[in-house]
Amino acid sequence: MKAEYRKGSLQRDNVEHEEYAGAQSVGIRESRERDGATDLLERILGRNNLNKAYKQVKRNHGAPGIDGMTVEAALPWLRENRDELLQSIREGRYKPSPVRRKEIPKSDGRGVRKLGIPTVVDRIIQQAIAQQLQPLFEPLFSGGSYGYRPGRSAQQAIRKVKSYAEQGYGHAVEIDLSKYFDTLNHELLMSLLREHIQDKQVTDLIKKYLKSGVMENGVRRETEEGSPQGGPLSPLLANIYLNEFDQEMKSRGVTVIRYADDIVVLARSKRAATRLLESSRTYLENKLRLKLNTEKSKVVSIVAQKHFKFLGFALGKNGNGMYIRVHRQSLEKAKRKLKELTRRNQGRNARQVMENIKVYIRGWIGYFYVADMKRILQSWNEWLRRRMRMYIWKQWKKPRTKVQNLRKLGIPEWQAYPWETPDGDTGALPEAWY
After folding, report:
1. Could you read off the pLDDT of 260-272 as tens digits, one per residue?
2. Among 21, 176, 178, 392, which one is least packed by beta carbons within 10 Å?
3. CA neighbours within 13 Å on the CB side: how many for 161?
4. Surface-to-core class of residue 28, CB atoms within 10 Å of its CB (0-12 exposed, 13-18 middle, 19+ buried)
5. Rounded to an integer, what distance in angstroms lies between the CA atom of residue 371 and that of residue 211?
């Protein structure tokens, strides 16, 4: 401080007072900028931010990582090792653990989706980083991006597509990226991060997570590209990466609606959409070093009954105009799930089965509520009631039990006996008495 003061005094002796004051303000501003660069890490490691991150990880009920530590066991460990953990991060000594590989079937039944499950401690740190970076990058994202952003949803995305379709955008380019989360280029991603993050400690920590590796069958494998799905930081990094595509298309006047790696590019004609498919492929593969799935990336008519699909939704058109509907593949998937929940050999109490059905349907409707599905739910109601009658009928098993329970339902004895006999057994309770 004394040296800085003496330097200022010499300057004051040689220049006008106004010029000196301006030089002082520049020095203060540069000092504050330097402090702000390191302030980001301290905000990430702040008590309130870390507590918020822990609560969020706990709410997500994630599985343990390679160390086997559960979310419940993490709290006492963090209390005991907090100081050493934070100090190692500040000094750059912290090394994230490799993620645990887990494969889950894809919703379309074709292949598996590879997840990378970090340890609970790494998930908390990643969540703490994401909480501080999200407000920094949020203003930079395109208005057509809806995935993993606060206050935005898949329902808003399909409504926006409907809005554009009503304005004459009758064709769409469905872009499917092959293994997107596994193929993010680390060098390009880090370059994008460094443009907006001045704190080298933070960017170095993020790079360590990208390079932490994957544990498969007890063998650690290096990760030279990608950001494995399963960590709290991955969705934000994926949005930062594809924001380059959003902004490039925006500069060309092209309309793009995106939810994470689910992308539709809208056009007014099939010819224009065909050109956009090729230009999108060129940019994504040459500039962002991603790979398009050529079988699934295609030009479709938005109102075609079997073609357009986005986030499980589709669009239809009737005398009243455009409307949102549930895509047939989503309906088939739900029907398969309901059949599984009502299979008659699971040995569960009928009330428990009905409760499981209610929980599933409530969640399903909570997602597809923007779609026109009144008739679908009416048909499901009839079908599920029939399935449950069959379920209860099988649980009664013995003819005597069936007769007793039918009489409890108010059916006369003379009518109950024919129903329980082999000739009269239809395999389900009579519909009128359910």
Report:
1. 999 999 999 999 9
2. 21
3. 36
4. exposed
5. 42
Going by C-alpha positions, the residue among 34, 267, 276, 22 that lies closest to residue 165 is 267
79-83, 236-240, 295-299, 343-347: least confident range: 343-347
**Which residue do the tokens 């301290």 mark?**
42
- Of 115, 163, 101, 132, which is closest to residue 39 (Cα–Cα)? 132
Any idea what the Cα angle at residue 419 is, between residues 433 and 404, rounded to 5°?
70
Structure token digits, residue 27: 């020095």
pTM of the model: 0.80
Over 221-271, what HEC string results? Answer: ECCCECCCECECCHHHHHHHHHHHHHHHHHHCCCEEEEECCEEEEEECCHH
Contact assessment for residue 254 and residue 241, using Cβ atoms and an 8 Å cutoff? no
Q: Is the pLDDT of residue 399 over 80?
A: no
Q: How far is CA 324 from the centre of its chain?
A: 21
pLDDT digits (tens, 9 = 90+) for 32-63: 344 444 589 999 999 999 999 999 999 988 88
Instruction: Report the run of H or E that residue 176 belongs to, with start and end.
Output: strand 171-176
Strands 214-216 and 99-105: parallel
d(CA 141, CA 172): 22
Locate 133 and state its tokens: 């970076």
